[in-house]
Amino acid sequence: MIYLFHGTDAEKTRAKAFEWVAKARTKEPNLVYLRLAREEMTSAALDDAVLSGGLFVQRLLVLIDDPFLAVRAKSEDEDSTGEETAGSILEDHIESFATSDNAIIILAPKLAAAKAKKLAAKAKMVYTYDKPAVREDARGFNGNLVNALAAREREKLWLEINRALFAGDAPEMLHGLLHWKARDLLEKGSRNWTPHESRRLSLALIELLQSSRRRGLDFNLALERFALSV
After folding, report:
1. Fewer CB in a 10 Å sphere around the end CB: N or C, the chain?
2. Rounded CA gap, 165 and 151, in Å?
3. Would you say 8 and 110 are in contact if contact means Cβ atoms under 8 Å apart?
């Protein structure tokens, strides 16, 4: 039986795999635990992982630790055969792993999608731990936010601030955009803001940041209150 642990979050994948092993050993004390690192993997060792068992040892719990090397660029004179051996040997044993009574845990963080799909097709259980996707606009320009400020639409501004915070944007980043827009309004003029009002808006945003830092105020909440005061 194959239990596959993989994902882009290498630390979490590894931690969860060993946590699973610990729970399995507690649940079934007669399991004999064996860990095979990439350097220790041979065809004979994997044959033993599949077939071992006996009168006193009913089942093995085998952790195959990171059998696939991460892809990297190689020079023309670099021999990659040795690097690929462990992964190739493991792939040759997939069918026997799948039908074995022993529990075979394959710990393969950052596994290539094609290999993950191949292993998952034969696994009893698949555990995937990926890092959250980096939003393309995480540090980008939030047009809806600054347009709401320019239009002096407090309800829309409040809504856009909350949407951005919920999406994971840092409040300091939102403040920076708002202050940039306040200076832009002051320099270019606006039909919704007089020069005097634009200057007061810019100063109010500076004071907002300073007050939050000095008094240890919740900056998210301070931004919401500011929006409703526009």
Report:
1. N
2. 21
3. yes
d(CA 15, CA 1): 21
Q: Is 2 helix (H, G, I), strand (E, B) or coil?
A: strand
Instruction: Tell me the pTM.
Output: 0.55
Give per-residue pLDDT as tens, 89-136.
Answer: 888 999 999 999 899 999 999 898 999 999 999 999 999 999 886 554
Q: Which long-range contacts (CB under 8 A, 24 or more apart) does 218-223 make?
A: 219/171, 219/172, 219/175, 220/165, 220/171, 223/161, 223/165, 223/171, 223/174, 223/175, 223/178
Reduce the DSSP state of residue 194 to 3 states and report it. Answer: coil
Place of tokens 């991460």: 70
Q: What is the DSSP string of 88-132?
A: HHHHHTHHHHHH-SSEEEEEEET--HHHHHHHHTT-SEEEE-PPP
Q: How far is CA 152 from CA 149, 198, 201, in A?
A: 5, 11, 11
Give residues with Cβ within 8 angstroms of 87, minimum separation 6: 67, 68, 69, 115
Dihedral, CA of residue 212, residue 216, residue 220 and residue 223, to nearest 10: -20
Amino acid at 127: Y
For 76-84, the CB contacts below 8 A with 24+ separation are none
The b-or-e profile of 83-117 (16+ CB within 10 A means b, else e) is eeebbebbeebbeebbebebbbbbbbbbbeeebbe
State pLDDT tens for residues 169-219: 888 889 988 999 999 998 899 999 999 999 999 999 998 888 877 777 788
